[in-house]
Specification:
The complex is a heterodimer. Chain A is 43% helix and 20% strand. Chain A is an alpha/beta fold. Chain A has one domain: Glutaredoxin (3-Layer(aba) Sandwich). By secondary structure, chain B is mainly beta. Chain B has one domain: monomeric porin ompg (Porin), CATH 2.40.160.40. Chain B contains one helix and 18 strands. Chain B has a twelve-stranded antiparallel beta barrel. In chain B, β11 and β12 form a beta hairpin. Chain B is elongated. The chains are: A alpha/beta, B mainly beta.
Chain lengths: 184, 373
């Protein structure tokens, strides 16, 4: 009797472990560590709300703010007006915003963007792949990529302000100008 | 992707539930224990919070234990003071445990967390003591026990192996500290039996695995939690049996402020063990009550009959996210939840069995350090 009990107990535990492994196995390879400043930003290609594909590499030569967000994430939606303001002011000076939405319904995202009047490209990361590529497991996350495709800032959680974005852009543009001056 | 995961999960879930069902119908578990507290997976308690985030849970739970129909509740007495195990000496009536647990869960980094769990317990217990020995016909005497005190605290280190926006796989290693009382006395002035005391009196080690995956992002979340506890023998020569816990469940976000939750909770407790001599009470009732008969005078490690238990419950519940309802600093990152734990199958081995229990809780998170990486 006792042996039967032990056997069925062990079987139960093994099946439970199998169940856990089965579910996590599907996503096992997805978790990656956040990149650090100075690392090359890994390229990605995602569709926007109009179905056009945007890749990170197509913006090489510009300063790119890659912002990971979702409509349910309050801090994300709070910081977006600052991103929009900077985008309006700096888009002609080599500044690009790519707002990468995570795992949400396209119609919901479209409605949110329309109601907020945002004009920067909004990309859809429907299978969470780019977020995993950038080690994003909490929102919002903002990644500043410089003109050479190197990550210069990785901002987690804390709110982006216009001043903060302007300060990073000035610094990155200044560094490039300084490099160019040194070369000449 | 999510649809595939659901299809792959369902057969395994069915098999798991089937095996648990077979376990209850085809075999007889060994025992029940003097007192248990119900347990459900809260999620915010098992996760590793983001770096710098402190998540607090204040949880009240009410756990009644009564005899199942068809059981007599006649069990052995445990005399820690004189190291005696006296068979058929007690008849259990009921135990009610109220627990207020304060749980602090802190993300040291995004992957590494530290959790401190501090329970405060109020426990009342009723039984008939001295079968075959006390009373004119050896019918025993009603005895009560009541104590309220801090229980055994647990400190757990956790590592999130698989952090993504959709999933988490957290391995935990905990140490349970003997901060609970083990020497409280009953209404007769005797030291209460170890299983009913608020503390276990010795260090316990706990290993755990928590897994969660958003089957439908931000809508349907699946989770599982398994743990194993081993407690060492205390200074009274009493060793609580190992404990296995297995929980699986899902949460559905209906509207942003209301989450419906359901989970199955399975617990298997191994026999307790005591270093004691072995005696047998006289039959009760008896016209000639007297001292128990010594069966084996040698003090040695013996399994305690009628301890340990097997328990399967379903726990439906709901969570109200206050953050989505009110805009105030008090309700920011805060939620309330309620669960009832309804037994599905119990094997209490002629001892008290856990009845329908209730859990109320409040979760509140604080950003202690700037999360910026």
């Amino acid at each position: 009797m006792r042996e039967a009990l032990t056997r069925s107990g062990i079987a139960g535990v093994l099946l439970a472990l199998l169940f856990v492994c089965e579910l996590t196995g599907a996503v096992w390879g997805m978790g990656s560590r956040p990149p650090v400043a100075g690392m090359p930003a890994s390229d990605f290609a995602l569709p926007d709300l109009e179905g056009r594909t945007h890749s990170l590499s197509q913006h090489r030569g510009n300063i790119v703010l890659v912002n990971f967000w979702a409509t349910w994430c309050k801090p994300c939606t709070t910081e977006m007006p600052a991103m929009q303001a900077c985008y309006d002011r700096l888009r002609d000076k080599g500044f690009v915003v790519l707002a990468v939405n995570e795992l949400e319904d396209e119609a919901k995202v479209r409605e949110h963007i329309r109601s907020m009047g945002h004009t920067f490209p909004v990309l859809l990361d429907k299978d969470n792949q780019v977020a995993n590529q950038y080690g994003v497991y909490g929102l919002p996350v903002s990644v500043f990529v410089d003109q050479n495709g190197l990550i210069q800032e990785y901002v987690k959680g804390s709110l982006l302000t216009q001043e903060r974005i302007q300060e990073v852009v000035d610094r990155l543009q200044g560094a490039t100008a300084q490099k160019a001056a040194t070369r000449s | 992707m999510s649809g595939k995961a659901v299809h792959r999960a369902i057969p395994l879930l069915v098999i798991l539930i089937g095996v648990l069902g077979l376990h209850f119908t085809a075999s007889r578990a060994y025992a029940a224990c003097g007192a248990v507290t119900c347990f459900v997976v809260i999620g915010s308690q098992q996760q590793v919070p983001q770096g710098g985030l402190l998540t607090t849970n204040t949880i009240y739970n009410y756990t009644p234990m009564r005899l199942l129909s068809g059981t007599s509740g006649v069990i052995p007495a445990i005399d820690q003071t004189e190291r005696r195990l006296i068979l058929d000496h007690h008849q259990e009536v009921r135990t009610i445990t109220n627990t207020l647990t304060f749980d602090l869960n802190y993300g040291i980094t995004d992957r590494f967390g530290l959790e401190v769990t501090i329970p405060y317990l109020w426990r009342t217990h009723h039984h008939i003591d001295g079968l075959g020995e006390d009373g004119p016909n050896g019918e025993g005497e009603p005895t009560t026990f009541s104590d309220n005190h801090i229980g055994d605290m647990t400190i757990t280190t956790k590592y999130n192996m698989l952090p993504t926006l959709r999933s988490m796989l957290v391995l935990g290693f905990g140490v349970q500290l003997p901060t609970g009382s083990t020497q409280a006395t009953d209404s007769a002035g005797e030291v209460m039996e170890a299983p009913t005391q608020l503390g276990r009196g010795q260090v316990g080690l706990i290993g755990s695995v928590y897994q969660t995956y958003e089957l439908i992002p931000h809508r349907l979340n699946q989770f599982s939690f398994a743990s194993y506890r081993h407690t060492f023998r205390n200074n009274d020569g009493y060793q609580f049996g190992d404990e296995w816990n297995l929980n699986i469940g899902a949460n559905v976000v209906t509207v942003p402020w209301l989450v419906l939750m359901g989970q199955f909770n399975y617990r298997y407790l191994v026999h307790d063990n005591m270093s004691a001599s072995l005696e047998q009470s006289l039959p009760s009732p008896t016209p000639t009550p007297g001292d128990p008969i010594v069966i084996a005078p040698t003090i040695m490690n013996r399994q305690v009959p009628n301890t340990g238990s097997t328990f399967l419950a379903f726990s439906p519940g709901f969570q109200v996210n206050l953050d989505g309802l009110f805009d105030s600093p008090l309700t920011r990152m805060a939620s309330l939840y309620f669960y009832s734990q309804i037994p599905v199958a119990r094997d209490s081995n002629n001892n008290l069995a856990q009845g329908t229990s209730f859990i109320f809780g409040l979760t509140k998170s604080f950003q202690v350090l700037n999360p910026e990486g």
